[in-house]
Request: fold
Amino acid sequence: MGTDEQAQTPNSEQPGSGDASGSEITVEILRELLGSEAADARLVLEAGRVRIASDSGGLVLISREELLDRVGTDPDATELTEQAGLLNTEVRLRGA
Reply:
């Protein structure tokens, strides 16, 4: 891969950003959701982007509470990868 090609290759994961790249749900953003101090935190899809929110905007994909029910307080990477895959499938099925 040449220098020009490398410069054009997007970095799809930005850990710690609070925002996944586009509509892709990552293990990192699920960890951020679990670690959120806001009791009403949820993962939402708004304007084609996934973000953690406690406001009323966007399409709610999963709440912090629901994710805790699914994976517990200390999930391993495999559990989070599985949940990210399920949520990404749900986003695609909704046509988002």
